[in-house]
Write a structure and sequence with these properties.
The chain has one domain: Alpha-Beta Complex (Inosine-uridine Nucleoside N-ribohydrolase, Chain A), CATH 3.90.245.10. The chain contains 13 helices and twelve strands. An eight-stranded mixed β-sheet has the order 3-2-1-4-5-6-12-9, with helices on both faces. β2, α3 and β3 form a beta-alpha-beta unit. The chain is globular, with a radius of gyration of 21 Å. It starts with a helix and ends in a 7-residue tail after the last helix. Bound molecules: beta-D-ribofuranose and calcium ion.
């Protein structure tokens, strides 16, 4: 073999080795040193939405590309105002905030001021926002961002699934381009809106069925998981040790929720929406056995129920089955609270 060929082989060998080492290092690196995961949060803000958003904004593992607002806990108008004020409080006007659907696909809007306060933010009056609304319609913004970062965007819906369903209906080509969907919603063991339906799914069952059947990798962080992930007074006290505008806001939100829970004999408040963001930060905090899940849209008593095949069978008429998150203890919350992240500003 001529010397030059041999040399080029050696160069090639080292080039390949280097590539492999870099890849290996990339895989072995702790998540915080890897490139942050690009996420879009679709939200109905919302007390626990507020906590989820602030968690995401203060987690170096995540790169929040947009906040899109959906009606749910509060009206679309109130939710948008809340999102703007929160991003302004966090000094993050660089993140696009877009308005979307004004009501569910086929039913009336059901709001939840009792659980979230009159304004949705535990009745806390945040200063007027310095941030401006993005001119794009939320489903259009989602479509645009997915196309501009193919296979990189994780959708984190933490409200009813109206905007996500509208995006899929408008442009189904986004489905294979989305990295994954990690949503808060549903349950496999009883609901909070009705005996069987969880609020985000009950808020727009038809939209939920579109999202669950779209064919993308989907993790359902359900009500029954969130119920095991309680923020108790112990964690509230921990939060109260540091101060800053975001910190103090989140403290008051948590206090509101804990007090509300105590009226019903609960020892803490479930971290529903923050847990979905938590699973985007670190997938290992939940276990997600694959299951096929359908959303009941017609049942007389069961509308909005997430009907999960717990025997892990794949129905003959579906091409894909979907993972569902479950966790058995407060391990998730403990792990998250111990992970060093930048203090809320
Ligand atoms: C879900 O419903 C809303 O009230 C919360 O923000 C959360 O997204 C819990 O069922
Ligand atoms: Ca929510």
């Amino acid at each position: 073999m001529p010397f030059t060929d041999c040399r080029s082989d050696t160069v090639l060998f080292f080039a390949r080795l280097t590539t492999r080492l870099v890849l290996l290092l990339y895989v072995l690196l702790p998540p915080s040193l890897a490139a942050p995961r690009k996420i879009i949060i679709d939200t109905d803000p919302g007390t626990d939405d507020a906590m989820a958003i602030m968690l995401a904004l203060n987690s170096p593992e995540l790169d929040v590309r947009a906040i899109t607002v959906v009606p749910g806990n509060v009206t679309a108008k109130q939710g948008l105002d809340n999102a703007l004020r929160m991003l302004s409080l966090a000094n993050r006007c660089d993140i696009p905030i877009a308005a979307g659907a004004q009501h569910p696909l086929f039913q009336k809007l059901i709001t939840a001021e009792f659980w979230h306060g009159k304004n949705g933010l535990a009745n806390i009056e945040l200063p007027p926002s310095k941030c401006k609304v993005d001119a794009r319609w939320a489903p259009d913004l989602i479509i645009e961002l997915v196309h501009s970062s193919p296979h990189e965007i994780t959708l984190v819906p933490i409200g009813p699934l109206t905007n996500i369903a509208l995006a899929v209906e408008e442009d189904p080509s986004i489905v294979p381009l989305v990295k994954e969907v990690i949503l808060m919603g549903g349950s496999i063991s009883g609901g909070n809106s009705t005996a069987v339906a969880e609020a985000n799914i009950y808020g727009d069952p038809e939209a939920a069925q579109i999202v669950f059947q779209a064919g993308w990798p989907l993790t359902m962080v359900g009500l029954d998981v969130g119920d095991k992930t309680l923020l108790s007074r112990k964690y509230l006290a921990q939060l109260g040790k540091t101060h800053g505008s975001v910190n103090d806001f989140i403290y008051k939100v948590a206090e509101f929720l804990i007090q509300l829970g105590e009226k019903f004999g609960d020892s803490g408040t479930p971290m529903y929406d923050p847990l979905a963001v938590g699973a985007a930060i670190d997938a290992s905090i939940v276990t997600a056995p694959p299951m096929h899940v359908d959303v009941e849209t017609r049942g007389e008593f069961t509308r909005g129920q997430t009907v999960a095949n717990r025997h892990n069978a794949i129905e003959k008429n579906v091409l894909q089955h979907f993972p569902m998150a479950t966790t058995t203890s407060s391990r998730a919350w403990n792990k998250l609270s111990q992970t060093p992240r930048s203090a809320p500003r």
